[in-house]
Amino acid sequence: MSSDEEAPSQAISHASAQALTPPSLPARITQKTQDGPPIPSRPGPLHTLVNYDTVRVFWPAPQSPQYEITYGLEDKFPDVIGRETTKHLNFLVKYLAPDSRYFIEVRAFNVSGYSAPSQATIKTGPDMTQPRNLRNPGRTFSETWLTWDKPDDASYLIDYEITCPGREPVRTTALEHIATGLTPEKGYLFKVQPRRPEGPVPALPASISVVTHDQVPPTRPQALKLTFLTPGNAMLNWRASQDNVGVTGYLVRRDGGAAIPVEGTSFAVTLMPEGLSDFEVRARDAAGNLSLAARWKDVMPPSKPTDLRAFYVTHNFAILDWTAATDNVAVISHQIYRDDELIHTIDSPDRYLRYLAQGLTSSTDYTFKIRALDAAGNFRDSDPLSLRTPGSDTTPPSTPGNFRASAITSSSAVLEWARSEDNVAVSGYQVYRPGTPFDTVGDPRYNATGLSGSTTYRFEVLAVDTAGNRSEPAVVEVTTLASNAPTSLVFNRLSNRVGTIQWAPPIESGGVTGYQLSRDGRFIREFSELHFMFNDLTAGTTYLFEVRAIRDGKYSDPASIRG
After folding, report:
1. DSSP result, 239-282
2. Which fold would CATH assign to domain 401-479?
3. Domain 487-562 carries which CATH code?
4. How confident is the model at residue 201 (pLDDT cuts 50, 70, 90)?
5. Residue-level pLDDT at 368
6. Which CATH superfamily is domain 306-388 in?
7. Which of 250, 420, 421, 534 is the most buried (most CB within 10 A)?
8. Does domain 132-211 have CATH number 2.60.40.10?
């Protein structure tokens, strides 16, 4: 670099050069001694090879026993900061400050004295000891990777010292360093200082600021599941995600809507009338990284409705029944199709379903099917049922005769009657009881169950022919016996797994020594208490509980409740 070129901003200034050089020495006084050889003549013109911190000085003859080289800062002339001697016609001045202007003088001398000086001024180049291109190509929440290139002049280099406030210095001869044990989301200032073996001027360091950042997302939530709790309400659950630092929460989206923050691994869902939604769950950490999405969408259709039959057909209606379908979540309805046209929807969750198809035409072929539908819109059809209505018949059967009751207990009675007559044929009998749908039987006998003790019931029976004509009803009143079953049966569900059941003694409680408890027809235990707690219930399951009084080693009729 010539003396007229401008130095880069990182070069050492004149003030820095002054601070880094030794105190100046007194100027040389040339004086001949009285005795001795003549003082040598001035050395020839000086020639220089300048680097950033050295300069090699050359001069031509005349030959002299020795030469003295002095140098100092140009703006401090004639103050000398260095004085060296040599027998050669060149000399290397070392440890100069980069980007600084110096004067240099060379004198020949002998025992008689010193010649006049030959002079030159030079300007050192920019510093070449600083590591180049210090960078941070990789970082995580607790580590950072520093890399750099060698200085332009690495001739004096021993190694590099990496420092950071609050951390122990580290030395390395490599061109990289991985700093570990950092704190996430924190700023650090690292300095890379080349170390030189000697000299008053240290190498320039390079610095870089680094902010640690967690770029590793949590794992995807697993085992996403929707559980129905009560009608219209469900719970979305999943297995917790893992993270290299820590999961701070989850974001739940419903049908692609706005993200809802959730702290735990469950989310309460209110079901919409139009059906189930699609759900997306992502885990997040403190750095804002989001996991891959776990998605819940019900794509599994219900099972096929089975056992579809028409157990009673007339010229203008038919009674259909079937076994309800099941689903991985829930069946919300069964749809009845006649000749591929939807005619009715049943929302009942009952396991066994029945439908009265009216408005049929006599002597006509029909095809029925049942479609099970879940809340997500998935469906499956039953096998089709084909039937033909009989021809028109308007004459009803005769009224059943001798309608009577026998074997009356506190909860049941046997009803019997004489057969009816019809101009074509009697197809069956319909039995009515207030508050309940009719039952149809083929024989003149019906076992009425589920009655309450000490209660009067009015039963009606009608004969029906193959055309659907019905007779006038026969009527009988039945008063049940006083019940010997426990009374005031109550069930309380305390949680998904826990529930209590309690009751009172029978109205006639004399001789009662204990009670038998069963659930869904399976014996639980016998005891004398009037209550019991269950702790093994299953969420979303309805049970049938029955309690019988024990008297003289015999069991009473059951008191039952569902819950």
Report:
1. EPP--SS-EEEEEEEETT---EEESSSEEEEEPBTTB---EEEE
2. Immunoglobulin-like (2.60.40)
3. 2.60.40.10
4. low
5. 95
6. Immunoglobulins (2.60.40.10)
7. 250
8. yes
